[in-house]
């Protein structure tokens, strides 16, 4: 069934901070509680090597109330900014990368941590926002993830 025929609107997305990772599920902290959620079927495997505690994930909740991880942002260290406005980052699994800043990104001092992602159109890497302190809710760029899934007709596959 094409996504524009899914009952209701686009699935609700919320962000969660990863606490524990298993191959088929991960535990996330969201809205003051720990929840175990599955990975969307198309999420690359091995997941225990791709998702780590500290990452930020987008969880889609379908009509049945079941949540699945559809995207993740890496927890990266800011190394500095380039003269063109791009941000030089270090991420444990990828080493040093240069990321384009999202509209909501505010410059960070070297050594600060920021959420970075790869795969969204427009740049190889994006830096979304500073890693938020405990007690505050991250915002990241879930609208871009939602648009990506809608544009490429991925909702049906993600929600099974």
TrEMBL record:
It comes from the Bacteria. This is Uncharacterized protein.
